[in-house]
Design brief:
It contains one helix and nine strands. The radius of gyration is 15 Å and the shape is globular. The protein is mostly beta strands and 135 residues long. It is 3% helix and 36% strand. The chain has a domain at 2-94. The longest helix has 4 residues, at 23-26. The protein has one helix at 23-26, and strands spanning 2-3, 32-35, 41-48, 51-52, 64-68, 88-92, 97-103, 108-115, 121-128. Strands 1, 2, 3, 4, 5 and 6 form a six-stranded mixed sheet that branches. Strands 7-8-9 form a three-stranded antiparallel sheet, with no helix packed on it. This is Purple acid phosphatase C-terminal domain-containing protein. Residues 62-124 form the Purple acid phosphatase C-terminal domain.
């Protein structure tokens, strides 16, 4: 499920872009939430109601949140606030890049953050959900 405004982020909310109430709509029913709008890359843990799922990416019950607004902006990339939020797992603020999703089958999904400047994969992680694949 894609959305434009992130709600679990480690950046300043200077322009009113964070949508904390959005989670109430998506968290009961989705596995992955991709958002942009914040101009940097951040991969978070699986999380619901600000609580990290202890299973992380291995059969979680909460959605996996990835914010990638690092494709570019006329003012440059946004800054992260340190220390990062406890649910943050990887960030990349100085690099422009894009997301690549690979659906291996019905139970495995890999996300990669790829640098625009040279195609280098700067971050990769795989989500596993225990499902029976239909043939």
């Amino acid at each position: 499920m894609g959305c434009c405004r992130p709600w679990y982020v480690s950046s300043k909310d200077q322009s009113g872009t964070i949508c904390e109430n959005c989670g109430e709509v998506w968290e009961p029913s989705v596995d992955l939430v991709l958002s942009g709008h914040a101009h940097y890359y951040e991969r978070n843990a699986t999380i619901a109601n600000f609580n990290v799922d202890p299973n992380e990416l291995i059969n979680p019950t909460a959605p996996w949140y990835i914010t990638n607004g690092a494709a570019g902006h006329y003012d440059g990339l946004d800054s992260l606030v340190r220390p990062l939020q406890s649910y943050s797992r990887y960030t990349q603020e100085p690099a422009y890049g894009w997301s690549k999703l690979t659906f291996h089958n019905c139970s495995h999904l890999t996300h990669e953050f790829v640098a625009s400047r040279n195609g280098t994969v700067l971050d990769t992680a795989t989500l596993f959900k225990d499902r029976k694949c239909k043939h």
